[in-house]
Amino acid sequence: MTRAPARGYGAVRGLTRLLLGLFYERLEAAGLDNVPASGGLIVAANHHNSIVDAMLLIATFDRPLRVLANAPLFRHPVIGPFLRLMGGLPVNRRKEAGDDPNKNAALFDATTAALRAGEAIAIFPEGRTQPEPALQEVRTGTARMFLAAEAAGVSGVTLLPVGLVFDEPGTFRTGRAFVQVGRPVETAGIGGADASPSIAAARRLTERLRDALRAQIVEADDRATLRLLKLAEELWREKAAGPRPGEAERVAWLQNAMRSYRSLQKKDPERVAAFRRSLESFDAACAKAGLSVERLSRRYTFGSVATFAAVEGFSLLIATPLALVGLVLHALPYQLTSLAVRLIPHTDEEEATDKIAAGLLLYPLAWIAEGWAAWALGGPLALLLFLLALPITGFLALAFSERLERVGREARAFLVALGHRGRRERLRREREALVRELEALANPGEAGTGGAP
Fold first, then answer.
1. What are the structural domain ranges in the chain?
2. How far is Cα 336 from Cα 343, in angstroms, rounded to an integer?
3. Are 332 and 370 in contact (CB under 8 A)?
4. Mind listing the pLDDT tens digit for each residue in 418-448?
5. pLDDT tens digits, residue range 200-251?
6. Phi-psi region of 64 (alpha: psi -120 to 50; beta: other; left: phi over 0)
7. Among candidate residues 67, 119, 65, the one with its CA nearest the CA of residue 91
8. How far apart are CA 176 and CA 163, in angstroms?
9. CA-to-CA distance for 176 and 155, rounded, in angstroms?
């Protein structure tokens, strides 16, 4: 039987879902039907975005997860209390464990007991996070954990590979995150007839897990290559002119495109290099013009522009008073959080974590100070009005800001279409030439290459 979650897990999960929903523009998940409803479960995911990776798993999985985290995090003033509330399990890396093997022996005892009780454990087999779009070396700890439980007589444990895929992972309200749950890793007979887990069995299972994880993510040579790959996907999608694909379909396209790219690099490196240079030039020109691939396809007529301006202008006008209140009430914590993130040294993969952690601490402190000021200036009624206005005007301010930004992007695209027709038409011709070359690269046996511009 699956044990009840640790006390406080539901509250932490609810807060996690709220924070991620606020931070990211879009969150999607696929393959959740691969998650067993009960029984011991090891959820193994790639590690790309620091603490946010664990938050994504907690928010996505309906089953409570006991997260394995580096032991020092349990002493962190902000993160530690949440890990303890959720029943997290501390991992002592070599520098923390020192010469004491009992520390990680105790960890394996704890994970075996959890799996025996039908609990679910979340682990990141790479052991460390990094921003590059490639799977790092998968360590044997996950396999050893599974085999230790098996050797202790725990049967029916599922090893589940999960891919975490991000777009602009550290950017507030622009980034996107996708959780792809793969099919369970085949584990039957992996331990052989040995009573205790062997090094060879751990390596075999680790190789299977590595391959399963790679099947869930998009790997590229570097971030620049991945960016161009995503641009190629946008071009292909615009050519197809169909409905916007889901993230699972998009990830599958990117995986296939990356395999084709590597194969073509070997067969025709000069042509591939020329196409890459053309993509880079087109990307830079679009950025300079303030246009996206999607907006290049739009036909701007007087009627469509007038309708858009009337509808959006009226909506913004109606929302302005309450949105301004929200912006004023949240200006102090927003600025404090921005300042804190600038002052905290962090790597690219830690940016989202630092923003969320700083906001989780500074927003409530600023609200308490503002609430005290409301009480001091206007008494209980002013405090009550402040508390009522805080969430409502906050969400209105966020929606208002996003809408205003979208209107600004549309206005820039219209102004380019109106005042720089030559630039826009040149970009459209470049886009069409890139699409033709992309089709030719995807179908090398067909006549007519289209040529790279």
1. 9-214, 223-289, 302-425
2. 11
3. yes
4. 777 788 889 989 999 999 999 898 876 543 3
5. 899 999 999 999 999 999 999 899 999 999 999 999 887 776 777 889 999 9
6. beta
7. 67
8. 14
9. 37
**123 phi and psi angles, rounded to 5 deg:** -145, 155
Mean pLDDT value of segment 120-141: 93
Q: What are phi and psi of 206, to 5 degrees?
A: -65, -40
Say if CB 112 and CB 148 are below 8 A apart.
yes
- Alpha-helical (H) ranges within 241-350 are 247-267, 269-289, 293-296, 302-343
Report how far residue 405's alpha carbon sits from residue 296's, in angstroms, rounded to the nearest whole number: 18
Separation of alpha carbons 319 and 55, rounded Å = 32
Structure-block tokens of residue 67: 């997260």
- Give the residue from 325, 305, 323, 303 showing the smallest Cα distance to 315: 323
CATH of 9-214, one of 3.10.310.70, 3.90.1150.10, 3.40.920.10, 3.40.1130.10: 3.40.1130.10
Angstrom distance (rounded) from CA 101 to CA 256: 44
Q: Are 102 and 74 in contact (CB under 8 A)?
A: no
Instruction: Report the side by side order of strands in the sheet with 176-181.
Output: 26-30, 176-181, 158-167, 41-45, 120-123, 65-70, 89-91
- Encoding tokens for residue 105? 């022996």
Token pair in block for residue 344? 């905290």
Q: Which residues pair with 27 in a beta bridge?
A: 177
Which residues fall within 8 angstroms of residue 307, CB to CB, at 6 or more apart? none
Nearest Cα to 367, choosing from 334, 323, 400, 320? 334
225 alpha-carbon distance from chain centroid: 18
Whether the CB-CB separation of 30 and 248 falls below 8 Å is answered with: yes
Contact predicate 213/207, CB 8 Å: no
| Distance in angstroms (rounded) separating the CA atoms of residues 271 and 184 | 40
Distance, in Å, from the CA atom of 285 to the CA atom of 291, rounded to the nearest integer, reads: 9
In the chain, the largest separation of any two C-alpha atoms, in whole Å, equals 79
Q: Which residue reads 């007979």 in tokens?
A: 189
159 with 146: CB under 8 angstroms?
A: yes
Which structure tokens are listed for 216? 């869930």
